[in-house]
Design a protein that fits this description.
The structure is a single chain. Helix 2 packs across helix 3. A two-stranded parallel ribbon has the order 1-2. The chain is built from 15 helices and two strands. With 464 residues, it is mostly helical. It folds into two domains: 406 residues, Ammonium transporter AmtB like domains (Ammonium transporter fold, Orthogonal Bundle); 40 residues.
Length: 464
């Protein structure tokens, strides 16, 4: 009965949200008001320019994150399937939430909002943030909980964008702080409330494990993320800055990859650990995000990547077990190691890069205002944004976790697809078992019926 109630709740809540999104979109959204058929060629060029970045980011979010989380041996359908659904849900909700804050910031009241390809990219950034948080509670929540978590998280995410970017004027082109740090510590807040009491139970669960096949599928997600990360960091950058974004991101990723392999061998008795290769190799893309468009020089990007990859690998091998055993926090995917700590490294390296730029304006050929809206005060704004993001994300995750705990239980069969996905092979086996269980009962009933018939016939014959 609990299963049926959960799924009925999921259908009801998701349908209500979708109808609400359509209604709000009809009120707020429009095409760019400068568009007309005579200017169509210009818009086509702009669309072609940005759509490449949109498609790259979408591949990262849906395929990259989706397959990265298929490492659990019995949760592949759920990992990939829920990622697909959450992406479609979050793009719509992020557009609406961002539109609200942008209008408040620009006009002080609500106006109609122009929807274009950059706005869709921002929608995918919101989806990416939710995917990061999803990793912390992977395998432990119901579909209904995931939809509600996404709904509340985007509210906090867009609020943080409003405060940290629109009001504080922090620069964070690749989202080290506002996407990765936010998503990681929102997820850590969630799992602190939802699953901390069951950490030992989850660690002993045989389904909370990988196989060689599931690890290979997860590695597919890693490779997609690694290849497309320059587009993620540069999707909304100014055209003149994108060459630095690509160079810095690739160099940082290469060094984090090398660093993670070295540390994986050192920490695992001379062998590579699939978890390190699947995750820590990506830490350089996370950590270089804030400073990707700044003059950090290739050597700076390489240093950031090497530090991030090393710390991430150490985190998976040392920090995660410590948090599980001493604090009781169970982070299924280790988002604290891939997104949390590298995100903080990205925020700190961004502060250093901004400080260097404000001390030596010649780095930007006198165009410092194009990079730092607050001029010489920009380093302090960067530091403020980092603390604001950490605060809103973690406490927002805690609050959302308490709401989820109040609304209903977690998944009854964690780390498996069995509870919410139709599996023809498993369901057929269950049906056979049910038939076998019923068969002795049916035989017994038929024997009883036959015995009663015989007694009735004997009684009738004696009366006659």
């Amino acid at each position: 009965m609990g299963y049926k109630k959960t799924q009925i709740g999921f259908i009801t809540v998701l349908t209500i949200f979708q109808i609400a999104f359509i209604v709000l979109s009809s009120i707020w959204f429009r095409y760019d008001e400068s568009f007309d058929e005579t200017s169509g060629a210009d818009f086509d060029l702009r669309t072609d320019y940005y759509y490449t970045y949109y498609s790259d980011v979408a591949v990262m979010v849906i395929i990259g994150f989706g397959y990265l989380m298929t490492f659990l041996k019995k949760y592949g359908l759920s990992a990939a399937g829920y990622t697909f659904l959450l992406a479609a849900f979050c793009v719509q909700w992020t557009l609406i939430a961002n539109a609200f804050w942008h209008q408040i910031h620009e006009y002080g009241e609500l106006h109609r909002f122009d929807v274009d390809i950059p706005a869709l990219i921002e929608g995918m950034f919101g989806a990416a943030t939710v995917m990061i948080s999803f990793g912390a509670v992977l395998g432990k929540t119901t579909p209904l909980q995931l939809i509600l978590i996404a709904f509340f998280e985007i509210i906090f995410y867009s609020l943080n964008i409003y405060i940290s970017v629109l009001r504080t004027h922090a620069t964070d082109i690749g989202g080290s702080m506002i996407i990765h740090t936010f998503g990681a510590y929102f997820g850590m807040g969630l799992t602190t409330v939802l699953t901390s009491r069951k950490t030992k139970e989850h660690l002993k669960n045989p389904d909370n494990d990988a196989t060689k096949v599931s690890d290979v599928f997860s590695l597919i997600g890693t490779i997609f993320l690694w290849l497309y990360w320059p587009s993620f960091n540069g999707a909304l950058g100014v055209p003149g800055q994108r060459f630095k974004v690509v160079v810095n991101t690739v160099m940082s990723l290469c060094c984090s990859c090398v660093g993670s392999y070295v540390w994986s061998v050192l920490l695992n008795k001379g062998k590579f650990n699939a978890v390190d290769v699947q995750n820590a190799t990506l830490a350089g893309g996370v950590a270089v995000g804030t400073s990707a468009n700044l003059y950090i020089n290739p050597v700076g990007a390489m240093a950031i990547g090497l530090i991030a990859g090393s710390i991430s690998t150490i985190g998976f091998n040392k920090i995660t077990p410590f948090l599980e055993e001493t604090v009781g926090i169970h982070d299924t995917c280790g988002v604290h190691n891939l997104h949390g700590m590298p995100g903080i490294i990205g925020g700190i390296s961004g502060i250093i890069a901004v400080y260097a730029g404000t001390e030596d304006h010649s780095l930007y050929n006198g165009a410092i205002g194009n990079y730092f809206p607050e001029g010489d005060h920009q380093p302090f704004r960067q530091l403020s944004a980092l603390f604001i993001t950490l605060s809103i994300s973690y406490f927002g995750g805690l609050l959302t976790g308490f709401i989820m705990k109040f609304l209903g239980p977690n998944a009854e069969k964690p780390f498996t697809d069995e509870e919410f996905w139709f599996d023809e092979e498993n369901d057929a086996e269950e049906s056979e078992e049910e038939e076998l269980e019923k068969k002795p009962l049916d035989d017994e009933e038929s024997n009883i019926s036959s015995s009663e018939d015989i007694q009735l016939k004997e009684k009738l014959s004696s009366e006659n």
